[in-house]
Design a protein that fits this description.
Helix 1 links the parallel strand 1 and strand 2. This protein has a four-stranded mixed beta sheet with strand order 1-2-3-4. By secondary structure, the chain is of the alpha/beta class. The protein has one domain. It has four helices and four strands; from the N terminus they run βαβααβαβ. The chain is globular and about 40 Å long.
């Protein structure tokens, strides 16, 4: 299964882009957070287990928001995984 990744947090408010996600049954992950790209990439890799579980549990079309670990979690473990939250479809 292929998964699309984006930083565009407004994508679900763009009717044509949301329609494309739905029509083509895409699993889309939106990276959330303000950090340099290398830090976001490292966080994404550190969160891969959680991301894989999310994708397996939610058949497409689906959009999830991928968050970095909290500053406190990163202070004690710089490779702490983040979390993934369902964004579309809403529960």
């Amino acid at each position: 299964m292929l998964v699309a990744v984006s930083r565009d947090q407004r994508i679900r408010y763009k009717p044509n882009e949301l329609a494309a996600v739905i029509e083509h049954k895409v699993s889309l992950l939106v990276i959330v957070g303000r950090a340099p790209h290398p830090e976001l990439a490292r966080s994404f890799v550190d969160t891969l287990r959680t991301i894989s579980a999310f994708v397996a549990a939610h058949p497409p079309p689906v959009t999830g928001k991928v968050y970095r670990a909290t500053p406190a979690e990163l202070e004690s473990n710089r490779h702490a995984p983040g979390r993934v939250e369902l964004w579309y479809p809403k529960h």
